[in-house]
Amino acid sequence: MTDARLPQIIQGGMGVAVSSWKLAHKVARAGALGVVSGTGLDIVVARRLQDGDADGDLRRALAAFPVPEVAREILDHYFVEGGREPGQPYIAIPRPSLTETLRAQRLQVVANFAEVWLAKEGHDGPVGVNFLEKIQSPTPWTAYGAMLAGVDYVLMGAGIPAHIPHLLDQLAAHEVASLPVDVAESLPDETWAVTIDPREVMGGAELEPLHRPTFLAIVANHVLAQYLARDEVTRPDGFVVEAPTAGGHNAPPRGKLVLDDDGQPVYGPRDVIDPAKFADLGLPFWLAGSWGAPARLQEALSLGAAGIQVGTLFAMSEDSGFRPDIRERLRTSLIDGTLTTRTDPLASPTGFPFKVAQLPGTLSDLGLRAERPKVCDLGHLRTPFRRADGRLDYRCASEPDHMFTRKGGADDEIAGRACLCNALVASAGLPQVRKDGTEEPPIVTLGDDLDGARALLATHPDGYSATDAIAWLRGETTGA
Q1: Residue 130 phi, psi dihedral angles, 5° rounding
Q2: 404 and 389 in contact (C-beta within 8 Å)?
Q3: CA distance 191 to 180
Q4: How many other β-carbons are positioned within 10 Å of the β-carbon of residue 328?
Q5: What domains appear along the chain, each with residue ranges and CATH number?
Q6: DSSP symbols for 48-95
Q7: Which of 168, 201, 299, 355 holds its CA 20 to 30 A away from the CA of 137?
Q8: Angle between helices 21-29 and 102-120 (to 10 degrees)
Q9: 0.85 exceeded by the pTM?
Q10: Percent of the chain with pLDDT strictly greater than 90
């Protein structure tokens, strides 16, 4: 890949459906890299279909799926003409596991195809998909679905994505492919994996080889980057280098965990990013986490970076997938100076720190978090573990306490946890309705750097578009 083809601006993958196809479509049309969040798309697409797909977008995308019978199976199972009745719960979808049913596999494939296809519809701008390495078991199917839609980039963080380059090579050829999966309490000689058979998923259809997307590993330090780059099997095509000020899941501080007076992780000198060390690797890299400003873009280029990845600026735009009332509250609190974020070391059941916007009525309120009845019915952040009898099971620090501890979870892992799966889906306007009629409360993640959004809102007080944000980053407008 030549430098001329590299995007200077990458729109980050944020939350569940916040980096929606509509946002990525707008960004890509403007010539930057638009990115859809691939996390939880099985939930998102299944629920949008149950809500009736009022605009017909999903049905239009499913009509383009290369094997109509496979898409029809998903449509027949989830689509509700006119939408579900008010107050009616969404039907359950299979929780990710190492033994996915064929329908669950197909839902992952079709959902990711639809989101990427819609993001790419009607233009030739670049579109990527963002995955979390921590959520391992669905990855072969989610990546395959995105590739069937012609995704240009795959980005992955929240772990060590050493096996992804080879997986993408295999999926491009429709080969049977396996991905190792981390299983807690495994014996020293045990290995676990999930395996995709594209021919089975696609009903035996013969398909032409797929475009192999560019793979960008999201890392927080040069040590991991050096490890991945040293072997051609694990080497990505580039890196997104994410500082701890970025939104979503953050890498833990290197060394012993120390909390400040507000209970936030303290990041030290070992966590400071040195762009020169990334430049020495000879692979393109983008800087992320508080780089979302015109001067910062130029600074990144001067340091040898291909550009920047920006999340919060786009999350606050009118094109993001946030529920409209949440976006309005974020905008109002940003303008009046009350909006802050907190790096919460406990919110995520993964053990990674998670950046939470402090917004009343959401799970940033620890009291509301504690009052929520615990239930784990989506399960994307569950940890697989080996039982004493050798069988595989799953646990989550956000599930009911007695279930977690009965499965070997420690008591000190329970306090302060949020159900990110349900809460992030709720922030995108797809909350589950419980038997008592209550809806799941949302949680909002943003990065620490709010200055760019504040500058744009100064000239666009009623809201700005993703196109406005890109023009401002490029220095084409003042934004203030």
Answers
A1: -110, 130
A2: no
A3: 7
A4: 12
A5: 3-321+462-473 (3.20.20)
A6: HHHTT-TT-HHHHHHHTSSSHHHHHHHHHHH--TT-PPTTPPPPP-PP
A7: 355
A8: 30
A9: yes
A10: 75
